[in-house]
Structure formats: structure tokens, C-alpha cells
Amino acid sequence: MWHLLMIVVKWVTRTGRSDTCGCSIYLDYNATTPLENEVLDEIQITLKEAWANPSSSSKEGQIAKAIISSARQNVSSMIGASQDDIIFTSGGTEANNMVFNSVIKEYVIKYHENAVDGGCKIPHIITSNVEHDSVKLPLQHLANENIAEVTVLPVSNVNGQVCAKDVLNSVKNNTVLVSIMMANNETGVIQPIEEISEAIHLLKRPKHLPNILIHTDAAQAIGKIEVCVQDLQVDYLTIVGHKFYGPRTGALYCHSPGKDTPLYPLLLGGGQERSFRPGTENTAMIVGLGKAAEMVCRNLQDYKKHMAEIRDFLEAKLQEELPNTIINCQTSRRLPNTCSVTFLGNQCNGFKILSLLKKVQASTGAACHAQNRPSSILLAFGLSEQMASNTLRLSIGRETTKKDIVYAIEDIKQAIDTLGK
């Protein structure tokens, strides 16, 4: 037991916030973020004081129900939505799968018998080739099982973005959904969701054809840039708490769920979340998500300014101290905290660099598929296999300092020098 405790203590010491004492410099905030102290406090208070079942008519149950409602309001305010449009989920993967399940079920109910597109009895979904696995793999499964037709659009090798014209050119009579992430988790490139939505909404489709709905996974964007569903003109938006200093839970924005926008449950059970997501609510985690959302509403401009300043300092120092580097998508519209850097040279394999770092914690790409092979996302952006293999993702947090960056670059330099010996 004590051995296990010491492992946990040692791990916490190494994976907490950035530390200029030389113990650890965490630069993997796109993988996950620590809980803000205010968020942790809210969770602990809720676990102690609001443990009752929110569906209960007891006084304690109604207190739990009320604080869930307050959290829902905070989350909706963060993205400029109505609180009635927020459905709490276990995380982003569930939210994304809910979207795909819903549009397919709606198509089957309304259009399967009177097939459109010259007899096509399955719906068509448009996506990109740089999506997170929680979008990519469900859509691959649907296509493989002949449940949906899926078009995967390439991003530009120049700016890393999907072209709105390519989306329009891919639309078919049976198209029901465009699902494109708001910002890429590895390069930080922000996709032109507003432009894509506007182009789709300007399409004049016959009334007998299905509406084309817009979904964006905003997991990486929230807490780093403005995210407003009214500006984006989306029907669905995925929210992931642990990407913006909240707990590992999430939510789905759905515009007027079950009325203007189809939403069907993945699970059957009680009537929680208006039966869209049954199961007794995880009150403490929902409250934590609400608190994290409140902090984003209150402090976003400060967060953005700080992260951009530190990220730009990082990139300038990298190119100054390690001239044989390329900052990927540096001229593109990017998240303020994300740096994808490629080190030129046969010996500069990203995984080998990571193994030799003494202080820095970073990654070669998405944590969900971190393996000793080139990132499929970077290959999709047009990098060669060697360049993709030689790439690190360095992502800045709210408390990362310039001193952290100086130490981090020293650590990266020693790792590369060791590989060159």
C-alpha cells in the first residue's frame, strides 16, 4: 500500500503544473490539464454536501438538482447557448457518438423508405482527414458496416485547413452531416467552421431532401479561443472538461434537441437529461465542469494573451537555439498555446528525444494514440514520414512561464546532442 502511495506521490510531483525548480516542466496541456484549485474545491464540497440523488424529491435531492442547473447555465454561457441546449455526457467520445447515432437514426426514420440520391438508402457524412479518433473511428466503422457513406476531405498542405468549397463540392442528396473539428489537437490549426456553416446554409436544397447539420468537436478550442455557437452557426458542438482545467466529463451542445435538431439517446434508462442521456447524474463532476466553464467566461482574454506570449517566446527561442527546426503551420490561424515543431536530422526521432528528456513532459502527438510511429495527423498535413517522426507537440498552459521555456529548450538541446553523439 505504501509503495503504491509513493508511486502516486512521485507521479503527481512530476505531472503537476510547470515547475521552475528543475523537477518537471509540463508542456502537454493539449493532452490534459490539471484541475484548477477553484474547480477542485467545488468538486470536494459537492461530494460532501450535495451527494443526494438529483432525481429525488427530498430537500437534499432538490439541492443537487439546483446546482446541476447552475452548472448547465455556466456551460451554456461559455459557448453562447441556451441552457436547454446542453446535455451532460461522460466526455467527448460519448458526445461525438451521440451526434452520429442521432443523424443516422433520423435519416432511417424519415428517408430510408423513400430513398434519396437515386435509391441510396444510407445517409452521407462529410468529415476531414485530421479528426480525433473519437470522430474518425466511429465514422470508419459506420462506413465499413455500410450504415453510412463517409467522405473524408484532405486539409490543405499550405495552411492545414479544410476548404469550404471542397465541403460544398462533396454534398450529395443524402448528405446529413458535416463533422469537422474546430481546432486540431496536434498543430493547433483552427478550421474555418463559420465559413463552412455559412456555405452550407446558403445551399438551396429541395424540401424532400434531408437538412445538412453541422457538428464541430471543440475539445481543443474551449478555454483557448472564443467559442460561440451563434457565430459558428453549428447544430452540435462537443465540450470536453479536462481540456480546460475541468474534470474528465463533458457535454454536448445540441440546438433545440429533439425539436429543431435530432438527438437520440445511446442508452435507455431513467429520464435524466430529459431522457437524452439517462443515468443518475455525476453531480460533483458536472459542478466541476460548470466551475471550469465559469472561469473561462471570466478569464478567457487573460488566458489567451498569456498563452500566446509564452508560445511565441517558445518558438522564437527554439529557432534561435536550434536552427535546424521547422514550426509547422506557423503562419496559419492557430490556437495560442500550441507548437508543433519538427527537428531536422536523421537522428532527431521524436520518441527518442522524449526518452532522453530529463525535465520536459511533452508528446509527439495525440495522447489517445501515442505509439512509436509517425502521427497520421501530421502525415495528413503533408509531412513526410521522417519529418512526422521527428516532430514534437509542445503545448502551453495557463501558468507556464518564460523561465520554464528556457529550461525546456536546454533539456531538448541536451537530448538532441545526446542523439547526435
Brief sketch in words of this structure:
Helix content is 41%, strand content 12%. It has 421 residues and is α/β, with parallel strands linked by helices. The protein starts with a helix and ends with a helix.
Which helices and strands occur, and which strands form pairs?
Elements: H1 2-15, E1 25-26, H2 37-49, H3 59-78, E2 86-89, H4 92-111, E3 124-128, H5 133-144, E4 149-153, H6 164-170, E5 175-179, H7 193-201, E6 213-217, H8 229-232, E7 236-240, E8 250-254, H9 283-321, E9 325-327, E10 338-343, H10 350-356, E11 360-361, H11 376-380, H12 385-389, E12 391-395, H13 402-420
Parallel strand pairs: 1-11, 3-4, 3-5, 5-6, 6-7
Antiparallel strand pairs: 2-8, 7-8, 9-10, 10-12
Please name the defining characteristics of this protein.
421 residues; alpha/beta; seven-stranded mixed sheet; three-stranded antiparallel sheet; 12 strands; 12% strand; globular; disordered N terminus
Biggest sheet, open or closed, and with what strands and sense? Answer: 7 strands, mixed
Give the fraction of residues assigned to helices. 40-55%
**Overall 3D geometry?**
globular
| N-to-C SSE string, H for helix and E for strand | HEHHEHEHEHEHEHEEHEEHEHHEH
- Structural class by sheet pairing and helices: alpha/beta
What count of helical segments does DSSP give? 13
**Between the first and last Cα atoms, what is the distance in angstroms?**
42 Å
Q: What is the average per-residue confidence, as pLDDT, rounded to a whole number?
A: 92
Report low-confidence residues grouped into runs of 5 or more.
1-21
Order of strands in the sheet with most strands: 2-8-7-6-5-3-4
Determine the strand fraction and express it as a percent band: 5-15%
Radius of gyration: 22 Å
Q: How many β-strands, per DSSP?
A: 12
